[in-house]
Amino acid sequence: MLSxxxxxxxxxxxxxxxxxxxxxxxxxxxxxxxxxDNLNLSLLEISHRSKNYEKVMEEARQLxxxxxxxxxxxxxxxxxxxxASLQFAMVPYNFLKNKAAYVNTGVxxxxxxxxxxxxxNVDVVASSEDKKFGYIPKNFQVGNDYDYLHITxxxxxxxxxYKTFPKxxxxxxxxxxxxxxxxxxxxxxxxxxxxxxxKNMGPAGATMIMIRKDFLEKSKTGLLTMLDYKTHIKAGSMxxxxxxxxxxxxxxxxxxxxxxxxxxAIEKINEEKxxxxxxxxxxxxxxxxxxxxxxxxxxxNVCFRLKNEALESExxxxxxxxxxxxxxxxxxxxxxxxxxxxxxxxESVKVLVEVMQEFExxxx
Amino acid sequence: MLSxxxxxxxxxxxxxxxxxxxxxxxxxxxxxxxxxDNLNLSLLEISHRSKNYEKVMEEARQLxxxxxxxxxxxxxxxxxxxxASLQFAMVPYNFLKNKAAYVNTGVxxxxxxxxxxxxxNVDVVASSEDKKFGYIPKNFQVGNDYDYLHITxxxxxxxxxYKTFPKxxxxxxxxxxxxxxxxxxxxxxxxxxxxxxxKNMGPAGATMIMIRKDFLEKSKTGLLTMLDYKTHIKAGSMxxxxxxxxxxxxxxxxxxxxxxxxxxAIEKINEEKxxxxxxxxxxxxxxxxxxxxxxxxxxxNVCFRLKNEALESExxxxxxxxxxxxxxxxxxxxxxxxxxxxxxxxESVKVLVEVMQEFExxxx
Lengths: 364, 364
Fold this sequence. Notes:
By secondary structure, chain A is α/β, with parallel strands linked by helices. The first copy, chain A, has helices at residues 23-34, 51-68, 83-95, 107-117, 213-216, 229-234, 244-259, 262-283, 312-321, 346-363; strands at residues 12-13, 75-80, 99-104, 121-127, 149-152, 154-155, 160-161, 172-175, 192-196, 207-212, 287-289, 301-306, 324-325, 336-339.
């Protein structure tokens, strides 16, 4: 029997990822570790070929199609291990024949570019590196002879986000790891979307890949089995033992999102959370946002810093006292970063805003 | 707060994998889903760069060295996603330069051979395919000019197991997925050992790779980042977000093994479990073992069948009534397979033996 485990204190979890998950999802995940589906067995010790688990995988795949409002006639969904970093290699390994176009908007985009260059010709058609990735490049041109254009929808480290996506005549591939299912988008403009689960979708250990069928047809042949998207699609994402538990928690999280009203409902809450926090950053005399182009500010990762960095330890003391966790900026950029993923309650943002106001009252 | 979840009925879990895990490990895993390390946060929603998780990864790596009785001066340990199937590709991708030798002892060995052939010259130096993989090839020769010899220590589907390993003058690489840490071996004879976690080590979603440092030095350069063992070894298995929860459960399982007295203690229990079951198969007039060479019978996966297959539904009824689960043979071979992994109590084997005896009394 499970002893009564609980969180003694409410922590406001602004972690950039792995990030906050809904309480009810964590509860169900814990229960499945003991007794899954009333089998009197743990989910961790049953065959992935069992009917009970096959249903989980099917639902986890279907929920992606549902939330993106696309059909199984047009797109396939699989879950793999290895994180988005493995996709940096798999995308060009499967699709780069002639040349590929990439936009460089930060650390993760740069890593994707580096991998693609190991596999073929790559043109960086736009970049915001000139201004420390503080904006999203716009109005760039992409010729029709590229195999695909690769973009990164949201940049966790620099706190920028595409508000509209480039209109191009080549297949559009998107690393959506850090803002997937946070807002309504037209998924049909993408030929391939991938996302490490550990922000809005679930825990670390599973990566979702959604591929348009007519794009998949263009993929290369003679590939290594496990690195060939076709292998996994043909096998319904069960070619070999999948990351069973991570995919289960993804399924629970996508179910929760549906119950919450889906992407359009969560988008409104996410916009309100971001509006509250950016308004305070802009109003408060002690802070400044780090993104140059305000219109490109991310609704997921809000990056800011103290105007007087000598006061950092004082600010740190205040937010720690308020049980706030995970707002230190990435080690490459410093400052602060509050990640407002789907499962973060608006109450946590209000607590952070109060702490910032208290800080101003005390130290201005 | 966690509601009181429990298993209502004791199920005897003979699943071939993902396989049975210790009750106390499942309990701790469930608790970590709610409140990990008294952080008032779930393990599923904290940064893998947190000190608390870095300690988990370090311990999970160290415990492998401890159980193999080797030192961190000689070997490195990492955990990746993708399962053993990804290692079928990564081993030749990193190490196959001139030619590699493989032994074919079943389905998994065949898959490893297929991947290696996509990457270079491969010689199958021994095979038991001639007799449906019912034995382990012995006394074969391997020239000194191979980059490595690849073997599969235990064959889950056919129920065979190397009792001693080939003595060769080239680096020995072993897929140990299904019998790792089940028995004392001299790990120093291996240059690389890999294992999907989901049998004796933990849940699905993490794969352990242990590599000798002097072998790693021979690996190729210019590789794709995520498929290069050096990437992960340099980063302490934290180059990118690892499969956080699966590695945690591996750590718990390896801790449990240590508490149980380690590999030499579990080996004695595993031998007794296998002895009990094989003795009954050989004694009972209704059954026969499927492995031709009795000396190669696996202590992990015991494969057998009814002499009169028309009675299958009768036997199935009996073992299901006894709350036995997971003893159907692999779909490629049929019959029955009882997997006796480390966490399976000897009591479960006794229950199966009793059911077999009852079956004989009723239907002989």
